[in-house]
Amino acid sequence: MKKIGVLHGMERSFPMAFVDRVNRMGLKNVKAEHLEIDKVQQGEPCGFDVIIDRISQDVPFYRAVLKNAASTGTAVINNPFWWSADEKFFNNALAVKIGVPVPKTVLLPSHDKPTDTQDSSFSNLRFPLSWDQIFSHIGFPAYMKPHAGGGWKSVYKLRDPADFFEKFKETGQLVMMLQEEIVFQEYFRCYCLGRKYVRIMEYEPRNPHHLRYVVNRGPASEKLLKTVHDYVLKLNEALGYDFNTVEFAVRDGVPYAIDFCNPAPDADVNSVGQENFEWVVEHAARMAVERAEAHQPSKDNLTWGTYIADGVANFLKSNKK
To answer: Looking at the structure, do residues 17 and 61 belong to the same domain, yes or no?
Structure first.
């Protein structure tokens, strides 16, 4: 019997519906249940073939548990090693590399020195930075947001340089990035599951949270939707995420990837709506069952994006010469 576990925190609607959906498929060799963690011993299997991770981004203990499980053959969705290494500024750099449009963005050192550092720790950092060049490149209004992390925590809309320097002081030791504003005519939030199932949803980030999926812009063009669909798959193939959302702001017909590092995206029925919720539950169940049926005991059952996989392949190739 293949076992699928879901690891979650205060979230209720999606985990419960997911477990119920898998078990109602009537599969003789696959079952799902809520993960229960007790004794965690190094190198010992956890008893699950697949785990859907919805909470380890907030609980370091869980992240360590999942890495241990992966080392013994559990297929963890999403890959906890890649998730630990990934961040939003790198996402943008990779998007540029693979040809997906993103807003102009620059990385900023933290306003306050990191703990246990001093001025001499920054011998290689120019001070002050070329602020005039940075502001000219990005323009105003602009957005400043953490280079890592999720949600709308510590996100600022900035009017001008004076506003920037005032808000920058509030960011403390956070490493931030400054990003151009995309004044959009259309906006989409897209689920991507298993790097093949895509759900494109009209979205309005300026609405109250419970109304963001209530949009009346009229139907988008088939050409635009096809481009968005292809970009979603392209980004997740490169990054290696099997459960993720990608957001696009469309300016003058061009979809710009705004936020595409959401490996535990909101899937609550009260925010995404019943129709979107049903889609996520159904396709998450399909994906998890597919991974369970393909699971090979005691093997490495993690998936990796093409960025890492291609790098490994090139390394092995060079060593054969």
So the answer is: yes
CA atoms within 13 A on the CB side of 285: 24
Question: What is the spatial order of strands in the sheet that 186-193 belongs to?
Answer: 197-202, 186-193, 243-251, 254-259
Tell me the pTM.
Answer: 0.95
Q: Is 260 exposed, middle or buried (0-12, 13-18, 19+ CB in 10 A)?
A: buried
Question: What is the longest distance spanned by two Cα atoms in the chain?
Answer: 65
Q: Look at residue 215 in the predicted model and tell me its pLDDT.
A: 86
Residue 16, domain CATH: 3.40.50.20
Among 138, 161, 180, which residue terminates a domain?
180
- Residue of 217, 220, 240 lying closest to 312 (CA atoms): 240
Range of the domain at 30: 2-85+286-307
Which H or E run contains 21?
helix 13-24
Last residue of a domain, one of 117, 145, 180: 180
**Total count of domains within the chain:** 2
Tokens representing 223?
């050409």
Residues 81 and 108 reside in one and the same domain: no
Q: Are residues 12 and 70 in the same domain?
A: yes
Q: Which tokens is 1 given?
A: 């019997």
Query: Per residue in 223-277, pLDDT tens?
Result: 999 999 999 999 999 999 999 999 999 999 999 999 999 999 999 999 999 999 9
Q: Which residues on adjacent β-strands are paired with residue 51?
A: 5, 76
Burial environment of residue 167 by CB neighbours within 10 A (0 to 12, 13 to 18, 19 or more): middle
